């Protein structure tokens, strides 16, 4: 028997029995298909009694619908052979006459053991559907959901670590290819519309248009609102305390520099005064006093920035930023280099200024000859 595989607008696929295939000679086969809203031909197949081996060929000359015509059966290149274990169905061009005759129709070459029914599928239906896969199982062939909610076999052509507003495994596919299996969304389908603006007027216009089409808008989410929610969470507050810790650390470093200068200012000023008596110009003494600690302070800032980056790379992945771990991580823990460079520059400027001022004060105190008398 010759079967015609159809898919309707809702993505439901069914086989229509066109009738028994005659042993020889032409015959007209037909059956009601019940596609009031329209159907798409998926392919042809041959059904036999289970377990009965068979082989042969069937030529399809023309396919018509009541009240009109179709472009079927098409050319050989429009069809994909079907294979299942020992059963196979292949397309071939049918000729109207001898070997040199022009093609007329489509010949199905079939052979099998009767235990399966492979389908000669139209190449208009990609098999499997190419997809960009997101999630832990992101390699090879995966099973996803179509618009109608039915399972569709997909092949991963690329992978993504994460995607916006998606939790768990997901797939990004071509909508035009996906609608080949039906254009009607299932009752449990959830559709999202993304905009590049948060203008309320634009959102209201879209909401009104969807309501007129009978589509209910269940929720509207804005990126600014989501970001504000994250910023007000407890982990965000903990990370914001890092700013206060940075300021406190900077002040502590400046205080340490001042204490180092204060603890040794007498000895250093006497040394500078002796150098002045030896004929060293005051400008040179000032440069010496300033440059004595400035290189060490600048190197300490650069070393601290490097240690901070390494420490963050090791420590941040262990910090629980969310109370419930997510199947797919959406957190970017890479170093924000503009911020790192800005903070390093501020630290260099502040500690460099403190070191410079301390050096100037020591140089000014060293200009007094009374420091030499103290050493005598």
3D architecture notes:
The structure is a single chain. The chain is of the alpha+beta class. It has nine helices and 15 strands.
Low-pLDDT stretches are 96-103
Shape: elongated
Task: Compute the number of strand runs.
Answer: 15
Please tell me how large the radius of gyration is: 40 Å
- The proportion of residues in beta strands is 15-25%
Helix content: 25-40%
Distance between the termini: 122 Å
Main pleated-sheet profile = 5 strands, antiparallel
What is the string of helix and strand elements? EEEEEEEEEEEEEEEHHHHHHHHH
Feature tags:
single chain; 376 residues; alpha+beta; five-stranded antiparallel sheet; four-stranded antiparallel sheet; 15 strands
Secondary structure topology:
Blueprint: E1 2-8, E2 13-19, E3 39-46, E4 54-60, E5 64-65, E6 68-69, E7 79-80, E8 82-84, E9 87-95, E10 103-112, E11 120-122, E12 129-134, E13 141-145, E14 151-160, E15 170-173, H1 175-178, H2 200-212, H3 223-231, H4 234-263, H5 265-277, H6 282-291, H7 294-315, H8 337-366, H9 370-375
Parallel strand pairs: 12-14
Antiparallel strand pairs: 1-2, 1-3, 3-11, 4-10, 5-6, 7-11, 8-9, 9-10, 12-15, 13-14
In short, what is this structure?
The radius of gyration is 40 Å and the shape is elongated.
């Amino acid at each position: 028997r010759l079967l015609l595989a159809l898919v309707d607008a809702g993505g439901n696929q069914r086989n229509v029995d066109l009738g028994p295939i005659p042993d020889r000679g032409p015959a007209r086969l037909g059956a009601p298909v019940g596609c009031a809203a329209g159907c798409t031909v998926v392919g042809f197949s041959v059904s036999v009694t289970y377990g009965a081996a068979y082989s042969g060929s069937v030529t399809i000359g023309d396919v018509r619908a009541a009240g009109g015509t179709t472009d079927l059966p098409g050319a050989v290149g429009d069809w994909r052979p079907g294979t299942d274990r020992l059963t196979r169905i292949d397309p071939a061009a049918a000729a109207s006459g001898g070997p040199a005759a022009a093609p007329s129709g489509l010949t199905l070459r079939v052979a099998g053991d009767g235990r399966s029914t492979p389908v000669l599928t139209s190449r208009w239906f990609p098999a499997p559907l190419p997809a960009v896969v997101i999630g832990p199982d992101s390699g090879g062939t995966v099973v996803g959901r179509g618009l109608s909610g039915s399972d569709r076999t997909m092949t991963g052509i690329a992978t993504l670590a994460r995607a916006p507003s998606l939790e768990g495994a997901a797939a990004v596919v071509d909508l035009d290819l996906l609608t080949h299996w039906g254009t009607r969304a299932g009752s449990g389908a959830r559709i999202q519309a993304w905009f590049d603006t948060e203008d309320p007027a634009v959102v209201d216009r879209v909401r009104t248009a969807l309501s007129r089409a009978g589509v209910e808008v269940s929720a509207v989410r804005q990126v600014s609102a989501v970001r504000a929610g994250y910023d007000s969470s407890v982990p965000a507050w903990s990370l914001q305390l890092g700013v206060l810790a940075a300021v406190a650390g900077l002040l502590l470093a400046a205080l340490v520099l001042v204490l180092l200068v204060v603890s040794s200012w007498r000895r250093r000023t006497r040394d500078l005064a002796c150098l002045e008596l030896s004929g060293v110009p005051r400008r040179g003494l000032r440069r010496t006093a300033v440059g004595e600690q400035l290189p060490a302070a600048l190197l300490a800032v650069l070393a601290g920035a490097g240690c901070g980056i390494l420490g963050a790379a090791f420590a941040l992945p262990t910090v629980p930023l969310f109370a419930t771990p997510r199947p797919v991580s959406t957190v970017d823990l890479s170093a924000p280099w503009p911020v790192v460079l800005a903070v390093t520059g501020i630290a260099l400027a502040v500690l460099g200024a403190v070191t410079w001022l301390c050096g100037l004060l020591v140089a000014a105190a060293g200009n007094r000859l009374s420091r030499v008398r103290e050493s005598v």
